[in-house]
Amino acid sequence: MGDWGLSLDRSFFDRPAHEVAPSLLGKVVVHGPVAVRLTETEAYGLPGQDPASHTYRGMTPRNAVMFGPPGHLYVYFTYGMHYCANLTCLPPGTGSGVLMRAGEIVEGVDVALERRGENTRLRDLARGPARLAVAMGFGRDHNGEDAVSGNIRVYEGSRIPPERVMEGPRTGVSTGADVPWRFWIDGDPTVSPYRAHTPRR
């Protein structure tokens, strides 16, 4: 395994999601043989405050992990075909997290290619939240996994200069679309393209 520095402790995630999200850029998430350096994240806020968050209307069986301790994986199924993975923030009972939107596969490229398709361009292996989940092997069984002391870990990775950390509106959300809680590394080719929400017909 590469030298990614120390693994992050619980206190790193025990902060508001919009503070955790930009500080996750450059961090390395490791699951088995595959490691991804995060290049794009999105923050989702508190129940009753952020209409784009899964926790907006309170706790349900689907989003219960978001209300648990910080530093856990919240994996959800969307559009009937894709998994996406978040890291939970703030103390138990709060209900917020950070979506891992995109990254660069820095270890286990061969495994990621098997999962995503051998003809996938390297920059596209984890370019988007669903692609990232597939490349990393995240699925329903990983919902609730502890990313601080479990089999999935987040490491210090590399420091990103502040001038390269960009922020803007979140991608594809129908409510709270103007909240500038999407963060990305300027000029990184693995960052996903911005898409505003378009109503489904």
What does the model show?
With 201 residues, the chain is of the alpha+beta class. Helices cover 13% and strands 26% of the residues. The chain has helices at residues 10-13, 17-23, 109-116, 129-136; strands at residues 28-31, 34-44, 73-78, 82-89, 96-107, 152-155, 165-168, 182-185. Helix 3 crosses helix 4. It is globular. The N and C termini lie far apart (46 Å). The model has no long low-confidence stretch (mean pLDDT 93).
- In N-to-C order, the SSE pattern is HHEEEEEHHEEE
| Rg, Å, rounded | 15 Å
The 3D shape can be described as globular
Approximate helicity band: 10-25%
Mean pLDDT: 93
Largest sheet data = 8 strands, antiparallel
What's the short version?
The chain has 201 residues and is of the alpha+beta class.
